[in-house]
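Human: I would love a firmer grasp of how sequence relates to backbone shape in proteins. Take your time, and here it is.
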Amino acid sequence: MEKFSPHCVKCNVLRCSTIEKKGRVPSSCPTVKYKDLIEETKEKYNLPENQAVIQGWQILMSRILDPEKPREKYSWTRVDEIIEYAKIRGMKKLGIATCYALLFESKLLSGILEENGFEVVSVCCLCGEICPQDVGLKGNIFCNPILQAEVLNREKTELNIMAGLCVGHDILFLRHCKGETTPLIVKDRALGHNPVAALYISQNNFYKDRFTGKSA
């Protein structure tokens, strides 16, 4: 790793979160180190397809952060946000790329989306019936995330929702999916699909050696 590679999580200045922009920042700060990229990214944000996304995000955030009833601030679930975003964008056809082990949860999601007026296409990871040995793998079951992506491409879904795809399979799905995609369920077999819990328990003395190999 380059000696002064960006490492925002270790920054003690956090100037980027304030209005004041005159304070000193580490030499590794990406805002300083990659000034040339700032203008390049600005140009990309002005592309029509990216404008559509950030305009939708801005309207969504305004409704979440400044609701009609103050007590409703921050009360939206991720499902609420996905539904509202799709409505803001005028989307009608949504896709679900689901793991076989999460078909029940994805069925619940599909029902909610349909009740909100969307047409839903769902594709399970085990679709395709490709022999694992044909693609250099062992075993007799083969998940096919590329097929999931291509089916949703063919169906012309406007927004795709990932539900529990395995690490690696999610990468392949995103690589081949043409439509806008957002995750809803990130698989974590040990923690009830709540992976951030691993970060929290890593601070507990009983779990410190779980991730680092070092005892407390």
Observations:
- The chain has a mean pLDDT of 91.
- The first strand starts at residue 93 and ends at 98.
- Strands lie at 93-98, 119-124, 159-163, 180-185.
- Residues 48 and 124 are 32 Å apart (CA to CA).
